[in-house]
Amino acid sequence: MRELPRQLRLTELENTLRYEENEAKRWPCVFLLGELIEPQYEPDKSVFQRVADQMEWTLLYDKSPIVAHEGAFQIGLRNFVDKKQTLIDVSLNKEYHEITRHESIEAIGTMRAYECMPMIKALENDENEGPAIRDTARFVRLRLELLIAAGSEPYKGGVL
Ligand SMILES: [Fe+2]
What we know:
The protein is an all-alpha fold. The chain has eight helices and no strands. The longest helix is centred in the C-terminal third of the chain and has 19 residues, at 131-149. It is globular. The site of fe (ii) ion has 3 residues, from helix 6. Fe (ii) ion binds next to helix 6.
C-alpha cells in the first residue's frame, strides 16, 4: 500500500475502509490513511479534508469498535478540530461501544479541548456510566488540569 502513488493510495484506503468486510483488513488502513497528512506526502487541503472525513466516517459507522476507535484516535492525533463535535457526540452516546466512547473522550483530551471540561467532569461523576467511561473521563480531566496549570495552549499537532 505504501508503494502506491499518494492519490491512488488515498482512494484505495477510503474504499477499503468503507467496503472491506474483514475488520482485520480495515484496521491497518486507519493508520495508513492518517500518515497521508504527514509533511513527506505534501498534503493539500483536499487531502486533509478527505482523510478527516474518512476518520469521522470510520468512527461513526465502522461495525467493529476495534476499528472505529482508531478513527477517534487519529482525529485526536491529527488534530482534526473540525471533527471535535463528532468526538463529543460519540463520547456521550451510549449506543456506541465503550471502547469507541473511551477513545473519543481521550481524543478530546489529546486536542486539549479545554472548553469540554464541564462535559468531561459530568461523565466522570455520572453514576449511570461504567468504569471504562468514568475512569477515562477522570484521566482526561486530570490531564487537562495539568496542562492548564502549565499554561499550555490547545494542541497544534506534533509530538505529545
Ligand atoms: Fe485509548
